[in-house]
Amino acid sequence: MARSRGRARSKKSSNPGSGFVRALFSAIGSLWRLLAKALGSATRFVFRGAQELDPTHQRDGIAFFLFILALIAAAGTWFGLDNFAGHATYSFLYGGVGRLALLTPLIFVYFAYRLFKAPDESNETGRITIGTLLLVISTTALLHLLNGSTGTGATAMRHGGGWIGYGVSKPLVALVTNILAVPILLIIFLFGLLVITKTPVSKLFSNIARVFALGGAGIAK
Fold first, then answer.
1. Could you tell me the residue range of the domain that residue 101 belongs to?
2. Average of per-residue pLDDT values in the chain
3. Which of the two residues, 27 and 49, has the higher pLDDT score?
4. Which of 86, 120, 154 is the last residue of a domain?
């Protein structure tokens, strides 16, 4: 009885099918490790080469990339490109920023133009980027509130300020209600304009006073 069990076990252990499966999985694992190593080496080579590029070429590359994004955004939002890329772009941009998506190609083109024209003015570009972000945040939130997009469906997002507008306006309204949310967002919008134009508030007040003074002088005449 014991001998028959031993022979059965030896037959099972010597099953050629199990050995083939183990060898197959081992080969697949080795191939996967080889591909991962090759991909990692290629990625490191590309990034190392990109880091060694001249800084002006790096900035030009970013500018060209922004210009390509502008073309893709225009195809999806302005021209209604009827394919996967067009539908995906439309859904992504309108879902993200709502009606403001119509301006995204212009925003990309503007920053690409700045990098081409003034590549060394990184501080100025950073300042304008911050101001633009403030404008986007405040505008999308205002669009969401003024459009009355209270839902979270795709249609409500696209007709309002997108998920960004919803994400900004919803907690703000819950905190201070609509009555205060709108003026707060308008103040953020104004601050974004001041940041972009590099205009301090004191200069803004002096310009307003100068305009009123000129208007008063004109009326007096």
1. 34-120
2. 79
3. 27
4. 120
